[in-house]
Amino acid sequence: MAKKIVVVGGVGGGSTVAAQIRRMDQEAEITLFDKGGYIAFSNCGMPYYVGGTVRKREHLLRDTNDFAKKYNVDVRTHTEVISIEREKKRVSHKKNDEVFHEPYDKLILSPGASAVKPPLDGLNPDRTFSLHTIPDMDAIYSHIEKIKPKTCAIIGAGFIGLEMVENLTAIGINCTVIDRSSQVMKLVDEDMAGIIQDHLKAKNIELRLNDGLESFKNNGATLMLNSGKVIQADMTILAIGIKPNTELANGSSLELGETGAIRVNEYMQTNDPDIYALGDVVETPDYLTGTPRHVALAWPAHRQAYIIANHLTGSEIAYKGTQGSAIFKVFDLSVAVTGYNQAALDELDIRYKEVSHEALSRAGYYPGAEKVCIKVIFDAKDGRIYGAQVIGEDGVHKRLAVIATAMKGGLSVIDLAELELAYAPPYSTPKDPVNVIGYKAAKILGKE
């Protein structure tokens, strides 16, 4: 008898797992609920639509009817799943204020996460925005088209905040970035963040670090900062983080982990073996240390979808943990990270050493050679790689990918010297900067 599989939520988690299941099981009855109107869209592309790099809105969207037809999935948009009755193995869902019930054999939760929106005094929702969904993007785009703002305050200097700086600047809006931390992009170390900060200042971006937003006045146009300073802005972007949508899990007594996200096992099962979860709503172990982490990135969600689809069709492939490899662009710089930074290792009380190298991305005489800075953090005894950060204008993704792969393969930092990487003047130097990191690390560890 065909399994009845219910998926709650779309996008990178839910839509991907539904498609993966269908590829492996032609008989399963799959129903996908999403409370929004778009089951699959590119979150990461939204800043670039606002900034005009992505010209057409539809390029970010997957047509719901095409998806439903291709994968034979019963897709129900604008339908919110409001509760799980585990003992009856059914979910309750609401559409147009009517409540219905849907039975399941297996339930997959992919409700994602929501942008953090603190209850700030004086906030005017007509000029203060977050960017996490297509309606968020549409609201920002519409505001810009109608009001023609000249200035924007961006609260938060993480991925979204810095990507929005670039894209709003591209359409002529002057930006001020405000963050409570002493540096931008907390995923990198202070010295690497300094490179980003210098670049932002060179692009005439005003940075206000060690400060935060306390409240609004003047119908949301005046920002009162914790320091007592005042900023005027035609619009504000809140980019201060996300929180997993765990309401369904809480309401059905599914276990949450240390990070506040849903705890799952190596097959992405919750404490109820008939309920799986994936994506931005789950907590998974770190690949290197096993420490619980909540990592909201596309690669883990897609891999987790594959794990679940295999488990449902009889193949026990375990999810081995999340490494946290990520890359983003801010003006001319690419910033890439994987694994842990110094602050995270200090918190875990792990002893480490570090090695940095600054070089050209390709042969110096070949046009387009640009400076690339690499930093690798490794075990103080055996050279095990804990993390890496790469920043530059060219060749960043290649170097980060090599080091992330080395980490996955269990190579030590010294082994980087032995990697035989392809060379030609347009791409690298005979001894790639990654190789040089390995030689430097060997000297630090006394193993030259």
From TrEMBL:
The protein's Enzyme Commission number: 1.8.1.14
A molecular function GO annotation: CoA-disulfide reductase (NADPH) activity
Gene3D superfamilies in the cross-refs: FAD/NAD(P)-binding domain (3.50.50.60)
DNA damage as UniProt keyword: no
One Pfam assignment: Pyr_redox_2
Annotated SUPFAM superfamilies: FAD/NAD(P)-binding domain (SSF51905), FAD/NAD-linked reductases, dimerisation (C-terminal) domain (SSF55424)
Residues annotated as domain FAD/NAD(P)-binding: 4-297
InterPro entries named among the record's database cross-references: FAD-bd_OxRdtase, FAD/NAD-bd_sf, FAD/NAD-binding_dom, FAD/NAD-linked_Rdtase_dimer_sf, Pyr_nucl-diS_OxRdtase_dimer
Cofactor: FAD
EC category name: oxidoreductase
Keyword field: FAD, Flavoprotein, Oxidoreductase, Redox-active center
All residue ranges annotated as the Pyridine nucleotide-disulphide oxidoreductase dimerisation domain in the record: 327-428
Domain of life: Bacteria
Signal peptide residue numbers: none
Family statement: Belongs to the class-III pyridine nucleotide-disulfide oxidoreductase family.
Annotated PANTHER family: NAD(P)H SULFUR OXIDOREDUCTASE (COA-DEPENDENT), PYRIDINE NUCLEOTIDE-DISULFIDE OXIDOREDUCTASE DOMAIN-CONTAINING
The protein's name in its UniProt record: CoA-disulfide reductase
Species, as recorded: Virgibacillus kekensis
